[in-house]
C-alpha cells in the first residue's frame, strides 16, 4: 500500500514528498535527498491580484507573495496614484532578483463589471491566473446599533462583502478559464465570528461574518475546478485602519493587547507566512476554512 492509501487520487506536482520520497530514496541509492518543504510554499511564476494593495495588510501580503516568487501581483486600490509605500515596495520587489513584480491599478472593488474586465485583461496578458487576495475593506466609527443609518450600513457591506465577492469572481473567472485551479483568499476578520466588547461595529461585524460564509459557499462550488477558497481572519493589527482608533485613543493599545493570550496586537508582517501558505500548494487540501490569526483573541 502506498502512503496515500490503496488508490492514488492525486499526486503533488513536486512529489515524491515525505514518506514516499524516503521510500524511493531507500530503493534507489542514486537519489540524493534534499529538503522540499519550502518548495511547496514557492509561487514561482504565478500571477494574481490583491485588492486593497496600496497599503496596510494588502501591500504587506503582496510583498510576501512576491518574495515567494510570484511573477506578477496586481494590486487594486482606490487612489489614482499609488502611495509612497507602494512605490518603495514596487522598487524593493524589483530588486529581489527573482523576476517578481508589483503592478498598481486604480480600481474600485464595488465595480463588478470593471473588476471582471480588468482581471480578464490580466489573464490575456499573463496567460494564467493563480491567486487572489481580497483585502480591500473599510471600518466606520462606532455607531449605536439601534441608530445605525441605512446608508452607512450599505456603504460598509458594499465594500467589505459585495466588493470581496466581485474581487473573488474576477479572479475565479480567470482561474476557471485557464483550467489550472487557483487559490482565493478572502480577508475577513475575527470580528466575523466574535464581537469586540467595547466596539460593537454592527456593520463591520455583519460584513465580515458574511465573508466567512461566502468563502465556504464558493469553496463548495469551485472545488470541482480545484479552485480553493478560504477566509483569513486577522485579530487586532496596527495599520491605518486601526490607527484611526489607536492614535486617537492611546489607552486602547493596552486594552486590545490584554484581550489575547499573547498580550500584544499583531504586526502586518505576521500575515506573511499564513497567506503564502494559503496561496501556495503547501495548503493544497485546504478549502472552505476560516484561518484565524488573532494572537488567540478568539480562544478566550
Ligand atoms: N488591521 C486590522 O486590525 C484588521 C483586522 C481584521 C481584518 N482586517 C481587514 O484587513 C483588510 C485590510 O485592512 P488594513 O488593516 O490593511 O486597512 P487599510 O485601511 O490600511 O487598508 C484597506 C485598503 O482597502 C482600500 N479600499 C477601501 N475601499 C476600497 C474600494 N472600494 N476599492 C478598492 N480598495 C478599497 C483602502 O484604500 C486601503 O488601501 C480589511 O479588509 C480589514 O477589514 C484588518
Automatic annotation (TrEMBL):
Under Pfam families, the record lists:
adh_short_C2 (PF13561)
Name any one GO molecular function.
oxidoreductase activity, acting on NAD(P)H, oxygen as acceptor
The record, for PROSITE patterns, names: ADH_SHORT (PS00061)
Q: Keywords in UniProt for this one?
A: NADP, Oxidoreductase
* UniProt-listed Gene3D superfamilies: NAD(P)-binding Rossmann-like Domain
Similarity field: Belongs to the short-chain dehydrogenases/reductases (SDR) family.
Q: What name has this protein been given in UniProt?
A: Sorbose reductase sou1
Q: Which organism is it from?
A: Paxillus rubicundulus Ve08.2h10
Amino acid at each position: 500500500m502506498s502512503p496515500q492509501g490503496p488508490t492514488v487520487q492525486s499526486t503533488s506536482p513536486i512529489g515524491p514528498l515525505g514518506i514516499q520520497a524516503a521510500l524511493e530514496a531507500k530503493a534507489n541509492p542514486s537519489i540524493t535527498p534534499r529538503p522540499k518543504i519550502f518548495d511547496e510554499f514557492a509561487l514561482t511564476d504565478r500571477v494574481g491580484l490583491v485588492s486593497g494593495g496600496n497599503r496596510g495588510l494588502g501591500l504587506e501580503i503582496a510583498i510576501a507573495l512576491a518574495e515567494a516568487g510570484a511573477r506578477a501581483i496586481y494590486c487594486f486600490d482606490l487612489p489614482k496614484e499609488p502611495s509612497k509605500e507602494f512605490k518603495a515596495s514596487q522598487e524593493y520587489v524589483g530588486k529581489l532578483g527573482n523576476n517578481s513584480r508589483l503592478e498598481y491599478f486604480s480600481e474600485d472593488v464595488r465595480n463588478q463589471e470593471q473588476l471582471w474586465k480588468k482581471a480578464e485583461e490580466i489573464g490575456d496578458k499573463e496567460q494564467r491566473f493563480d491567486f487572489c487576495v481580497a483585502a480591500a475593506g473599510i471600518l466606520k466609527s462606532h455607531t449605536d446599533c439601534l441608530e445605525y443609518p441605512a446608508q452607512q450600513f450599505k456603504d460598509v457591506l458594499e465594500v467589505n462583502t459585495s466588493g470581496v465577492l466581485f474581487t473573488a469572481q474576477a479572479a475565479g473567472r480567470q482561474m476557471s478559464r485557464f483550467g489550472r485551479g487557483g487559490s482565493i483568499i478572502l480577508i475577513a476578520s475575527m470580528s466575523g465570528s466574535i464581537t469586540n466588547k467595547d466596539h460593537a461595529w454592527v456593520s463591520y461585524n455583519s460584513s465580515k461574518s458574511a465573508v466567512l460564509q461566502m468563502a465556504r459557499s464558493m469553496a463548495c462550488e469551485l472545488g470541482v475546478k480545484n479552485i480553493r477558497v478560504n477566509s483569513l481572519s486577522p485579530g487586532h493589527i496596527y495599520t491605518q485602519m486601526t490607527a484611526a482608533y489607536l492614535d486617537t485613543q492611546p489607552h486602547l493599545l493596552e486594552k486590545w493587547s490584554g484581550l489575547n493570550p499573547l498580550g500584544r496586537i499583531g504586526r502586518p508582517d505576521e500575515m506573511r507566512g499564513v497567506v503564502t501558505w494559503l496561496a501556495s500548494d503547501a495548503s493544497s487540501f485546504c478549502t472552505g476554512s476560516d484561518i484565524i490569526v488573532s494572537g488567540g483573541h478568539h480562544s478566550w
